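User: Need the bound-state model for D-xylitol-5-phosphate:
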Amino acid sequence: MAKLAPSILSADFSKLGADIALIEEGGADVIHMDIMDGTFVPNISFGVPVVKAMVGKTGLPFDIHLMIEHPDDILEQFMTPQTEYIVVHQEACKHLHRTIQHIKSLGCKAGVALNPATPLIMLEDILEDVDLVLIMSVNPGFGGQKYIPVATEKIKALDAVRKARGLKFEIEVDGGVNLKNCAELKAAGVDLFVAGSAVFGAEDVPARCREFKEILK
Ligand code: DX5
Ligand code: ZN
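Assistant: Bound-state model below.
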């Protein structure tokens, strides 16, 4: 069964705890946390204090998506008892192999993200080492953008490589995911679905999570 990872970037930050309780009620599997530094992406979201504040407030594991330059300098601080994944961008890491080993040494799963314009070939020599590959289906930085269709082909190609090489990493998609496109993405090979505006923009957030989960079964 594929997993639903609502992105709290689209939550109401003035009542973050209550919004997280809604996705938990709806059966979300993971909380996707978008960390932005204003340099790697043209936006600043939230950082370590907000992540730490959520520890113990929910039973859900954390999926930390680092859209930041120099992630090595701050990786440890995102390692909490609830951190399941830390995901860095290929475009932000000069020594990606070292960074991936660094994440694993902290005791969580290590993921790498690819921007829409970065080809899969850039991950050719690291796929054996990663637990997850995140395919960006929008240019990172903002919620509520339109899905970029090239991501679907990339996901299919990545799934084919995974099968051909007998690898076990998970495939995550992030950006513009909604109730209409998630069935096709599941068929393409996605295991972990990030959805921000499509979840928190709903009138009834728990019901929207359940609608997603029904399709992802
Ligand atoms: C974009 C973030 C996404 C974002 C997705 O930079 O990485 O996780 O919150 O938002 P939607 O689902 O609204 O495209
Ligand atoms: Zn994200």
